[in-house]
Amino acid sequence: MSLVFDVSANPQAASAADREQILANPGFGTNFTDHMAKTVWTSDGGWGDAAIVPYGPIQLDPAAAVLHYAQEIFEGLKAYRHADGSIWLFRPDQNAQRLQRSAARLALPALSVEDFIGSITALVEVDQDWVPSGGETSLYLRPFMFASEAFLGVRPSKEVTYLLIASPAGAYFSGGVKPVSIWITDTYSRAGRGGTGAAKCGGNYASSLLAQTEAASRGCDQVLFADSVEGKWLEELGGMNVYLVTNAGELITPELNGNILEGVTRDSILQLAADAGLTPVERKVSIEELLRGVGDGAIREVFACGTAAVVTPIGSFKDLAGEYTVGAGEVGEVTAAIRQQLLDIQYGRAEDRYDWMQRIV
């Protein structure tokens, strides 16, 4: 039986004037809606106590397992307001299934696809006035679950809390889409064989932060990680998958190997490749091949992809040996076309041939 999220209205909800002021310039991840979804799992009773409650601080016992053993996972997706005022999700079933895979890897309970989407629908229905309109604005949705049992033994938690919060988001590239620069680290690894690289858990992002700091110190916007065994195979950025556009008409991305997060945007782009006149290819790509191809022009465009930015053009790479400019260092035609095609589907401006969009309001 699916969960029913009973609504407990927030008596201190933002006024219409305050909300509109926030929506006029929402930024990203700094403002939150009036409510959040919550349900708690126990080893004895399964999922229960589902509700939409006022957004606010959560109370945790100092011995809560998540604080000591990092048993937690999360997702990220968006709600889009279309021109007619309706609100839609982009492939939410894929996020739900990835949350289940992450849960299995972190020894957490699975939340059904139906209840995952049900929590989003219930929250967005209550807080629908927080979904901005116009441009590339959206309502960013952050579902997450964590070990909430107060217990210091090292074992899977017998109590787990699932929460869903929402944050209005402005355009990722507020001043227009611009290429980013990438530092190729040979010091740090994002994930190792048999580790949690394919799961969406906070530890993966925490381990990338020092490398990100290294990139910033080298004058770069982001960091690229190689594999941890040989240190030669391209895997992903700190939080985005990577694509290469070749002169041979291929759209290449590193194959999934247990270390790489299986991005929803990544999968969508593979399906859109044919529409862009490209052949999608998933295979191992060495750092040497990447830099050689960029240098001799065999690789004419490189971009990263993820939920927040959708598609981010890469203008240059840098390592200890030097700097390598991709093409003219500008936004490539294929990159721009794929980005626009995805956005047009998400915002209802183009035909949804793949049945990716789901209306919730």
From TrEMBL:
Family annotation (CDD domains)? BCAT_beta_family
Sites of the modification N6-(pyridoxal phosphate)lysine? Answer: K200
| One GO MF term | L-valine-2-oxoglutarate transaminase activity
What processes does the entry annotate via GO biological process terms?
isoleucine biosynthetic process; L-leucine biosynthetic process; L-valine biosynthetic process
Pathway involvement of the protein, from the record: Amino-acid biosynthesis; L-isoleucine biosynthesis; L-isoleucine from 2-oxobutanoate: step 4/4; Amino-acid biosynthesis; L-leucine biosynthesis; L-leucine from 3-methyl-2-oxobutanoate: step 4/4; Amino-acid biosynthesis; L-valine biosynthesis; L-valine from pyruvate: step 4/4
* InterPro entries recorded: Aminotrans_IV, Aminotrans_IV_CS, Aminotransferase-like, B_amino_transII, BCAT-like_C, BCAT-like_N, BCAT_family
Q: Which cofactor does it need?
A: pyridoxal 5'-phosphate
PROSITE patterns in the cross-refs: AA_TRANSFER_CLASS_4
User: What EC number is given for this enzyme?
Assistant: 2.6.1.42
Q: Which reaction does it catalyse?
A: L-leucine + 2-oxoglutarate = 4-methyl-2-oxopentanoate + L-glutamate; L-isoleucine + 2-oxoglutarate = (S)-3-methyl-2-oxopentanoate + L-glutamate; L-valine + 2-oxoglutarate = 3-methyl-2-oxobutanoate + L-glutamate
Tell me the keywords, alphabetical order.
Answer: Amino-acid biosynthesis, Aminotransferase, Branched-chain amino acid biosynthesis, Pyridoxal phosphate, Transferase
Q: What domain of life does the native source organism fall in?
A: Bacteria
The UniProt family comment states: Belongs to the class-IV pyridoxal-phosphate-dependent aminotransferase family.
Descriptive protein name? Branched-chain-amino-acid aminotransferase
